[in-house]
Amino acid sequence: MMRKYFTYALLLGPLLGAQNKETENSVYQQNWVLSEKENEALAFDADIRLSESELTLDKKLFRLRKQFLSETEKQKIPLYNLSFNEIKPLIESSTLFKIIQDMPKGGLLHTHSGGVTDVKWVIATARKYKECYVYDQKDNDRFIFGQLAFFESGKVPEGFVNLDKKLTSDAHFEKELQELLILKRDNLCNYNNYWIEFEKRFKRISLLLPYRPFFKEYYIKGFQDLAKDKVQHVEIRFIFDELYDFQHGKYPVKTSVTDLQEIVKEVRRSNPRFSLKLIYSSFKFLDPAAIDKQLEMAFQLKKEFPDMISGFDLVADEAAGHSINSFRDNWAKLNELNKKYGIELPLFLHAGESNSVFNKNVVDISLLDNQRIGHGLNLIYFPKTMERIRKQGKFVEVSPISNQILGYVSDLRNHPARVLLSNGIQCSINSDDPGVYGYEGLSYDFWMAFVYWELDVKALKKLVFNSINYSSLNDGEKKKSVDYLNKEWNEFVQKINLTVN
Ligand SMILES: [Zn+2]
Questions:
Q1: Which pLDDT tens digit goes with each residue over 198-218?
Q2: How far is the CA of 468 from the centre of ligand 1 (A)?
């Protein structure tokens, strides 16, 4: 109704000039303006003041988005009813995407070991190892079709064939294998149990990653892609495996950490400010006794590598795993463990990756020392908890594309994070498992958020800076990281203003 009235008022403006003035000064209109301001003051980015050049950029991005939307409308592309997979080429061809690729993104605070790197690269690199094999039989209890692994010759289990030979002899197999390693949501109406398919993707590469030579290549590639996409800091929910090779056998768990430290040094040669933290991750389907052991291991690792290990998380499908509350005895022991090891191990739990009100994991978050929450999608159904989390200054790591692919949100305009942001809950944008979803970097998620959530430069800037301010970098590292980000951000604003009309 209101909008219609304003449209008419605009159209008839010249005729109704006098009347307009009266409406503007009316108490009703003053209250309307006040209400709008009150809403704006609640938003997560209310404290950001843009510079003149940022305001210029804002106008440009607003116009580019408008042009993009009217162009898709003209071409009769039903943008809001298409999945990420379907619009990926459209995103890539847009000017907006090129600008977002150029935008410094600060930190990627939510991603997983095994989900970081492009699967096309995984296949191309794995086949170079003559000891790499692929399982090409029907799924059984031990292996599934398309599962990759390394074996010494003479010790290859039945059903596995050499990967390079298989790819050379069967022209269709590369495409088939790619499809087996990528999870797509082809259209927005085919909801099934995505988690079963999702976990199969991880299983297919799970035997590749602990092989130490491949492990090193995998993370160098993953980090370089992220750095190229203007991500300066990465935090991985890391599942610790014993690395191995055939000369030496198994290495101790800490070898993953020391190898990653070396890899970071290597990445820093071309990207001097690149940094990494690992969040020790275990699984929600384990029992409390097993989690006790996992917590001890996490404390031991953090004690040895305080600058590398930042905290603890439990991953896996929340609908199938145990509730956070069922581990309450484990959480109650955290203080004791803090004292025993003389260090703190904050929680970074996934909570509320769900559409159900029966999943109450977010309620636990407001009661635990858990500064950062993975997903928090159903937080909006627990208003008191949401308010508490806002007051506690707790933070939500949002992964728009992941949430669509795993079936939690269809039309991204309806993503719950919009409610969190307008209620003043601080968030950042993340990619969760880009390798498994068939893309690299963080630009796609920012593009989706910018277009579907009608963000402006103020919101983008706040999301980007949040990702460093709420990172687990220590105070000294954080200061350096923010200084660098500020410099990069200002350069980006100048560059786009100069090059884009
Ligand atoms: Zn996750």
A1: 888 888 988 999 999 999 999
A2: 18
